[in-house]
Write the structure tokens for this entry.
Amino acid sequence: MNLINNIDLKYICTVIGNLSGVPIRIFDKDEQIFFHSPVLLIKDPLTVYKDTIWRIDSHIGYFITRHFNYYGVVNNNDIKIIIGPTRQTQNTSQELRELAFKADVPEEDIDDFISSMKGIVRMPLNSVLQMLCTINYILNNEKLELKDITIYESEQDDLKLFLEQQFSGINAKNNSDILNKQNAHNTYSLEQQLMSMVRKGDVSSIQKWVAEAPAVNSGILANEQLRQGKNTFVVSATLISRAAIQGGMDTEEAFGLSDTYIQQCERFNTLQQVTNLQYNMVIEFTKRMQQIRRGSNLTQLTIAVTNYIRHHLSEKIKAEDIAKAMFMSRPYLSAKFKEETGETLTDFILKEKTEEAKRLLRYSDKNFTAISSYLGFSSQSHFTRVFKKYIGMTPKEYRNKYNN
């Protein structure tokens, strides 16, 4: 179908795609009948999120991915128009490599995919929502404002379910109560306790804290309840990002993550969303710190090396590359690292890759060849040997153990 009420949708979408610099598509039921992109995409990243985006059934809505890319959707009966992805700041190469991995982009095409994705115009979410309002008016003759647009945030639902299942009956109402109870003040010691957990990457203590979170009054920051919640969120994001930096997180990464969470918070219309997002933010920062601070021999050098590895996880990392990034000679870096940690740099790199492999084996359906290639191993047999060396079992045995 190309015309609705004598409107040439393909023409409209082509113009919007050219003006915005963002990919746009038309679907009739499940069949894609039009695609326009300002850049040549080896694989449409929409494939990774299609099932989730298809659940948006309101006239107009949007979805934000884990890495804060957003897709906008307009529906008219069987017709679905989808614009995206874009985001306000540039994705890192590692984030795009992860996306390419999820989208099953062939290894030889990954660099081209990353280059094309970086060529998509970046824009604020509000600009995308304005385009959706325009398309919706054309399709549905309906005048909506930004406040009328529904977000489909699956991670919010997942987080709510996770909290309900794991933390002794804490639900959305309880979470809101925690944020708003007035019978205790947010003391300095409580704040320092939480920041210490984040800084150390102590995920288990954070989870326990959520289960037993004390009643806290954040102080009066606004006269209106939702605004109070958002202001509290901004304060929390600021404190948490600085705690993470003190613990060793890269400054740009910490502030960038904080900014994106704050931007997402400002778009929410309910206190429940803000509260759930706050727990999500705390857990994400803490998990990232756990990755950075993994191991008992923690030094500034190991923190710097771990940060480098995390940002180049899907590449064939060499000691020479790390040394160059740190303005050291390779022999000096290797000797200093062995002196401070008691293990070789090569062992440390392979252990970090193996930890990521464990996560992928447990929580993704990617085959062993795909995981091996994504993590920069020279072959699947090499990956298997390394994995067995550090874990004591093959990747197949590990997956079978945790997926049964």
